[in-house]
Amino acid sequence: MTEHADPVTTPYRPRATLRDVAAMAGVSMKTVSRVVNGEGGVTPQKVDAVRLAISRLDYRPNVSASALRRSSRRTAAIGTVLEDLANPFSSALLRAVEDVANEKRVLILAGSVDEDQQRERALVRAFTERRVDGLIIAPVGEDQGYLRAEMEAGTPLVFVDRQPQGLLADCVLSDNEAGARDAVHRLAEAGHRRIAYLGDLAIIPTAQQRFAGYQRGLLERGLPLDPAHVVHDLHTVDDAARATTALLRSEDAPTALFASQNLVTIGAITALQDLGLEQRVALFGFDDFPMADLLKPRVSVIAQDPAAMGRAAAELLFERLDGERGRPRRILLPTTTVLRGSGEIPPGRP
Amino acid sequence: MTEHADPVTTPYRPRATLRDVAAMAGVSMKTVSRVVNGEGGVTPQKVDAVRLAISRLDYRPNVSASALRRSSRRTAAIGTVLEDLANPFSSALLRAVEDVANEKRVLILAGSVDEDQQRERALVRAFTERRVDGLIIAPVGEDQGYLRAEMEAGTPLVFVDRQPQGLLADCVLSDNEAGARDAVHRLAEAGHRRIAYLGDLAIIPTAQQRFAGYQRGLLERGLPLDPAHVVHDLHTVDDAARATTALLRSEDAPTALFASQNLVTIGAITALQDLGLEQRVALFGFDDFPMADLLKPRVSVIAQDPAAMGRAAAELLFERLDGERGRPRRILLPTTTVLRGSGEIPPGRP
DNA sequence: CGGGCGTCTGACAACCTTGTCAGGGGAGTC
DNA sequence: GACTCCCCTGACAAGGTTGTCAGACGCCCG
Questions:
Q1: Quick one: A29 and A89 in the same domain?
Q2: Is it the case that residue A6 has pLDDT exceeding 60?
Q3: Is B68 among the domain residues?
Q4: What is the pLDDT of residues B186-196, one digit of tens each?
């Protein structure tokens, strides 16, 4: 009477194969295959015998072996290459992909690239060596041409968040430029004329687009672009906090801040709180974050919808897998402007 | 001169196989295999010929076919079954697993179960049908006995966050009870005698442990357990906010709150802010969250370390894969008490 | 010059599954 | 009773790879 399996003493029992099931049921392997795949053309008695053997042996079909032999050669798995599985943007996106894939009974291989081009290639290679049916990629490199071979081999590709370079393929993007532009407009409407830009690494395409939106917003409002109010290459909370502090202590300090990314926004808030200026300096962030409406003041943001991006990307991918052969499609998802308070603070005295 | 590959016109070029490489290089398939796997025993000229053919054909070894044939039968992939890939706890844990797996050049299949027992089983089944080398599971069901067959088939299992039922296996847990107990002690030290418990679904083992810790904390401080101050089964921010509001409006309202989980903590904060009581009612949360130290007051929490859990789980798993045959191990990770302010508010007037 | 040894190579089987095809058996037709 | 037709079943090959083994080749020894 062993209540619990004990790995020390548990006998090793190799997994049953189709052959074992066939032997136990007294039929040929093909007949077992027919039952497993619901092909029909098997007498009820044999079906029962096979079913019984399957449950007695706890048989699990070997999907790899099956995919190898099947004419479609589908593995029912897709690869997802994202920036960092631990960050809220990537993980919300991944989860949405999972939900769509789940309906199709497709599994997900996932990996993080951490802004590393090498890692992007390594992951793609590892995934294709496993013959995934398709790939969803948030590209980091400057050139995705190396993926052409994958497309030619029939593996559909969908890019998310950033456009691929040197390759035409389906992609799903946020309208970064329009979002950033709108943030600047809102700040201008509140009366600000000195709006600073706090940006992520300038090599990141989305950061470039947000910066372009910032510039366009200023231009459209007839506001000058002051180089002293532009900071690039902030990639951590601390970077952002330091840069914000420096800006606000400078001569001719800005009266409003546009933070081009999640962590930058948080850094800016940290700095504002440290300086006791959070109620005096306006702040608009790009990317929503969980606690934004519990802070004081509540934080106004340009929100992306990572789940919608993931869903859209997965749907494009599955359409390709279902045979869609049209030209590459580009889905541009609008951002949402969420006014919560911090972006509506008017300019105060110097 | 086509700058870009165009899926409309791109010719379909099936993936090259070992056979193709062998044909192009004018050697046998086995020789190609030797080169690919660095087996040696091949003359330099042939190695070069093979290398050339490989790069010309852009050959990618088929890992599934290889695993099928290899005596170790390793697929270099592990499955990770977590609560919800989008929540910060799961995603931090997953990321840590990924980092360990990455060093071993092992890929990750991931899926969410959403507290659904069926889904747990379906995912495990799907993963084992792909013959993953091992599984990391945050179990939801009341019985994991169904996994015994996997262990017997030689697939190592490591459980995280929650202990498996009906099965002895490696697991990595947070010391939930000690953490909750400590929160109660801290609140008691601040002078509170009416400390409410706001808990997640009572069927969740970790919630039970935290409740046990709460009870023990009260007992050790000689405080009464008031059933009117205990609320279970709060699973969303809204649930938690409503329950908190009701508690604080009741006769004999508590002067301190212990929120047993992330979302519950956030709901409690929302309610406190709505009632304007955030500076008067003490609050301790279980699980840290990103903005906890930007809120006012800053939120004191019992912090778990999901990354450490993921790392530990992955390490246990890889030790098993490296041949470790000892008894099941149980790693209990301590929690950290983070005092930020909200937990140190003294009891005020009614 | 036959034999032995070590190195390198390729033919072939095997892994687990599915697709093809032909054969066996029973029912129905003339 | 001979024939066709259909249904069911199993033998066999194939998918991409690796492991086994025997053979080829060059070399040295007696």
A1: no
A2: no
A3: no
A4: 999 999 999 99
Asked, for residue A182, whether it belongs to a domain, the answer is yes
Q: Tell me if B5 is assigned to some domain.
A: no
pLDDT tens for A168-215 read: 999 999 999 999 999 999 999 999 999 999 999 998 999 999 999 999
Report residue A343 as tokens: 């972006």
The CA-atom distances, in angstroms, between B296 and each of A26, A289, B291 are: 72, 17, 10
Put simply, the chain A residues between 73 and 132 with a CB less than 8 A from any chain B CB are 75, 77, 84-88, 90-92, 94-95, 98, 102, 105, 107-112, 125-131
- B270 lies in a domain? yes
Residues B316 and B169 in one domain: yes
Does one domain contain both B180 and B299? yes
**Strands lying side by side in the sheet with A230-231:** A230-231, A195-198, A256-259, A282-286, A300-303, A336-338
| Rounded CA separation A188/A183 (Å) | 9
Q: Nearest Cα to A156, choosing from A324, A332, A330?
A: A324
Residues 6+ apart with CB under 8 A from A117: A140, A141, A142
Are A53 and A200 part of one and the same domain? no
Tokens 């072996």 label which residue?
A: A65
Q: Does residue A4 sit at the B interface (CB-CB below 8 Å)?
A: yes
Query: Domain residues for B153?
Result: 77-174+306-334
In terms of residues, how long is chain A? Answer: 350
- If one counts the domains in chain B, the total is 3
